[in-house]
């Protein structure tokens, strides 16, 4: 397992993280490791765009149908 050292963390950020860790009943290190794991598990914007571009959109609504639905929602 890797060890990370983070420098120059603003004091308000450090205090907020300490408070959140305490509320979760965790050490600061465990809390931050969990939060970093959550961040790392999320897809990047580039990955999301790639997935969206790969989708088959041939069976979706037409532009006219979308505009009609938007207009109907405004009434």
Brief synopsis:
It contains 4 helices and no strands. It has 75 residues and is an all-alpha fold.
List the SSEs and their pairings:
Blueprint: H1 11-23, H2 28-41, H3 45-54, H4 63-74
Helix pairs in contact: 1-2
GO biological process, one term: regulation of DNA-templated transcription
Pfam family, one: FitA-like_RHH
Protein name: Antitoxin FitA-like ribbon-helix-helix domain-containing protein
Describe what you observe in this structure.
The protein is mainly α and 75 residues long. It has one domain. It is built from four helices and no strands. α1 crosses α2. It is elongated and about 55 Å long. The mean pLDDT is 95. InterPro entries: FitA-like_RHH (IPR053853), Ribbon_hlx_hlx (IPR010985). It holds the Pfam family FitA-like_RHH. This is Antitoxin FitA-like ribbon-helix-helix domain-containing protein.
Estimated structural class? mainly alpha
Q: Over the alpha carbons, how many angstroms does the gyration radius reach?
A: 22 Å
Distance between the termini: 57 Å
Instruction: Note the beta-strand portion.
Output: under 5%
How many separate helices?
4
Work out the helicity level.
Answer: 55-70%
Total domain count: 1
Major sheet summary line: none
> How many beta-strand segments?
0
* Tertiary shape: elongated
- What is the arithmetic mean of pLDDT? 95
Q: List the helices and strands in order.
A: HHHH
* Unreliable runs: none
List keywords for this structure.
75 residues, FitA-like_RHH, Antitoxin FitA-like ribbon-helix-helix domain-containing protein, Ribbon_hlx_hlx, mainly alpha, 0% strand
């Amino acid at each position: 397992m890797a060890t990370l050292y983070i420098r120059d963390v603003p004091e308000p950020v450090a205090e907020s993280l300490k408070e959140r860790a305490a509320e979760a009943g965790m050490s600061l290190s465990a809390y931050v490791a969990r939060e970093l794991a959550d961040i790392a598990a999320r897809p990047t914007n580039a990955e999301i765009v790639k997935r969206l571009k790969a989708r088959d959109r041939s069976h979706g609504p037409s532009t006219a149908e979308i505009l009609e639905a938007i207009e109907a929602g405004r009434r």
